[in-house]
């Protein structure tokens, strides 16, 4: 199988991730924070060391809380539902947001959600129109994904958040497709909170995600339960990280993320994906009947390519690539409800999405291109 669904989850993982998870499962898969014995202390140390590596990756201060959760979706639920909202609060989102943000905001009552404007020709955020909207309708919070999981567009989050901060808005970055692939520097991006997914561009396993509270934003507790501390108190502990982390830690997944972070090379991964991305886009643009949805400026695009083929539904393309060529791609609307009205892809039932990774080769991409050429003859 040629696996090109890396925007959903990177696969395979680096070998140290598998080895680290196996070791954790065999040696210290116990409840950290619930015992003082050696195995529990080892588990606690791996958790603390993983938090440290996450802080280092985003250049966060040592006092920034790194909160672990079972996934970035759970983390974003904790953030969104943890903000103290008032009636008629205005929230801005990019048109590229995932349902982890879109559906969660939609579940709230009393707030108004506004999409950031985009240029309908380039599909890029229109910063000047955004400035006007912010002045007209003051933002309480702004949520922005860093890299679109549909088109691979790198959003101008620095500009978006810088403008939002002029109105003291809470800024939340979804780094699911960017952390580990491009620079995510908390000193340069005015993000109060950065949410992350362990199993995507960080090359860790499923079962571990979270958020980094860069600005120490006060969040209400959403999930409650046992923490191993202050157990006679029916309220959650006041310690910031602990009060957001009920239940037992998934120490095996955290051990995998720890190993992934230790061997992560952001610049190498970017350069490799840059070559594959450009090569694929150049070739797809030369195939008659194929329409690519990518930014005109290649510097604003990386790793993910969406396209449609005239005469085919996207899910049919995916099925043919799988059954006839053993190529795994993703088709459909990719859990991103807003952007497809701009892509105008409903007649195709969404797009065919390619997601490359550090483990893909140019030969993989050549095989994909050859397959699509045969489909369009």
Molecular structure report:
- This protein has 377 residues and is α/β, with parallel strands linked by helices.
- Helix content is 36%, strand content 14%.
- It is built from 12 helices and 13 strands.
- A 7-stranded mixed sheet has the order 2-8-7-6-5-3-4, sandwiched between helices. The protein has a 4-stranded antiparallel sheet with strand order 9-10-13-12, with helices on one face. A two-stranded parallel ribbon has the order 1-11.
- Helix 4 links the parallel strand 3 and strand 4.
- The protein is globular and about 70 Å long.
- The relative contact order is 0.18.
- The mean pLDDT is 96.
User: Given the structure, what is the number of helices?
Assistant: 12
Helix and strand run:
EHHEHEHEHEHEEEHHHEEHEEHEH
Number of DSSP-assigned strands: 13
Question: Going across the major beta sheet, what is the strand order?
Answer: 2-8-7-6-5-3-4
Q: Could you give the distance between the termini?
A: 24 Å
Helix share of residues? 25-40%
Mean pLDDT: 96
Strand content: 5-15%
Alpha carbon gyration radius: 21 Å
Low-confidence stretches: none
Q: What best-fitting shape do the alpha-carbon axes yield?
A: globular
Biggest sheet details: 7 strands, mixed
Structural class computed from helices and strand pairing: alpha/beta
């Amino acid at each position: 199988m040629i696996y090109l669904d890396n925007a959903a989850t990177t696969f395979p993982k680096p070998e140290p991730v598998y080895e680290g998870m196996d070791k954790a499962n065999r040696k210290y898969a116990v409840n950290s924070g619930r015992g003082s014995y050696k195995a529990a202390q080892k588990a606690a140390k791996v958790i603390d060391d993983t938090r440290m590596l996450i802080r280092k990756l985003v250049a966060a201060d040592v006092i920034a809380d790194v909160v672990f959760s079972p996934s970035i979706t759970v983390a974003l639920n904790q953030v969104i539902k943890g903000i103290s909202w008032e009636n008629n609060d205005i929230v801005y989102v990019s048109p590229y947001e995932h349902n982890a943000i879109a559906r969660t905001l939609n579940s709230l009552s009393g707030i108004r959600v506004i999409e950031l404007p985009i240029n309908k020709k380039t599909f890029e955020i229109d910063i000047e129109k955004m400035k006007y909207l912010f002045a007209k309708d003051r933002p309480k919070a702004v949520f922005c994904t860093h890299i679109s999981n549909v088109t691979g567009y790198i959003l101008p989050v620095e500009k978006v958040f810088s403008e939002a901060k002029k109105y003291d808005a809470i800024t939340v970055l979804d780094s699911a497709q960017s952390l580990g692939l491009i620079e995510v520097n908390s000193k340069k991006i005015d993000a109060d909170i950065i949410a992350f997914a362990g199993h995507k561009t960080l090359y860790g396993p499923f079962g571990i995600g979270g958020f980094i509270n860069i600005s120490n934003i006060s969040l209400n507790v959403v999930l409650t339960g046992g923490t191993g501390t202050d157990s006679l108190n029916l309220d959650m502990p006041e310690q910031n990280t602990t009060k957001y982390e009920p239940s037992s830690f998934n120490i095996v997944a955290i051990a995998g993320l720890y190993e992934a972070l230790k061997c992560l090379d952001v610049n190498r991964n970017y350069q490799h994906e840059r070559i594959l991305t450009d090569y694929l886009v150049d070739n797809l643009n030369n195939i008659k009947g194929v329409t690519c949805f990518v930014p005109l400026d290649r510097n604003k695009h990386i790793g993910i390519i969406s396209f449609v083929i005239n005469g085919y539904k996207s899910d049919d393309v995916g099925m043919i690539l799988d059954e006839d060529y053993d190529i795994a791609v993703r088709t459909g609307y990719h859990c991103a409800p807003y952007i497809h009205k701009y892509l105008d892809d409903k007649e195709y039932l969404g797009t065919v999405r390619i997601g490359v990774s550090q483990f893909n080769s140019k030969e993989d991409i050549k095989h994909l291109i050859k397959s699509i050429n045969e489909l369009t003859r």
